[in-house]
Amino acid sequence: MNKKISIITPNLNCGKYLLEAIRSVRDQNGPAVEHIVLDGGSTDESLNILREWTGAVNCGQRMAADPADERAMEGSAVSPDGKYSFRWISGKDKGQTDAINKGFRMASGEIRAWLNADEFYYPGTLQAVSDFFDKKPETGLLYGQAMFTREDGSPLRVRPTHRPDRNIFIYYGCYIVSVATFYNGKIFNEGIFLDDSYRVTMDFEFYARLWKLGYVFEYLPCVLGAFRLTGDNVSVRLAERRRQERLQVQQKYGARLLWGPMPRVVLGGLRQLYRLKSGWIRMKDRIRS
Description:
This protein is an alpha/beta fold. It has one domain: Spore Coat Polysaccharide Biosynthesis Protein SpsA, Chain A (Alpha-Beta Complex), CATH 3.90.550.10. Helix content is 39%, strand content 25%. The strands form two sheets. Strands 1, 2, 3, 4, 5, 6, 7, 8, 9, 10 and 11 form an eleven-stranded mixed β-sheet that branches.
């Protein structure tokens, strides 16, 4: 039985890529899909794209004033067969994490994910995800492989990843890519959301927290989505903050010494150790395949 999937897309002036992201959701076959776009007040072509797309689906566009911002707008549409619904809201927010959390609160799908406006899914992704959750309904978080692409969407390389290993994840690095990650909706129904104090590594912290809370992580060894290397990715622009936040997550969720969190030098040694283990696991997986 196919479960409904909700996709959340935060957007701010990514009109250059937005339509491809929207189409990659709409063109999926299989499960019912709810796509919610949270726009932070774009000044580029994003709003025109959202209005036109809504009209193209069912001419259901409407405008609505927001008490906090009279310029806020929203629209909604449903496909004739009822399997695809689209909704967008534009207005001021507190940033990407705030937008994602708002979307997860609005969503009704039994499976949920976020797709950044400059990313896209490959055909068959949502059906594969739905099938996996049908077979393993106890799954809390499912992740697959992500393709790194050029700005034009042409493929570069698959991001190395492997089956779940918490120590590799914490000490070596976050090998789970958000564009290839899907969540059991019960996580959000239980009141668990991203921590908006993290601007760059909110996904890393969220995964670490879910692991600590005991949610089941599963790995689907196929390419699910594309991470576009635009040169303006947040992780690139805010590299120093990314390093600082990464250290915070490691010290918060990693093992602790008697006198407090692990110092950087110890974390550096563990990083090298689990880098070797990560490479060993990937090599074994290649041999098996």
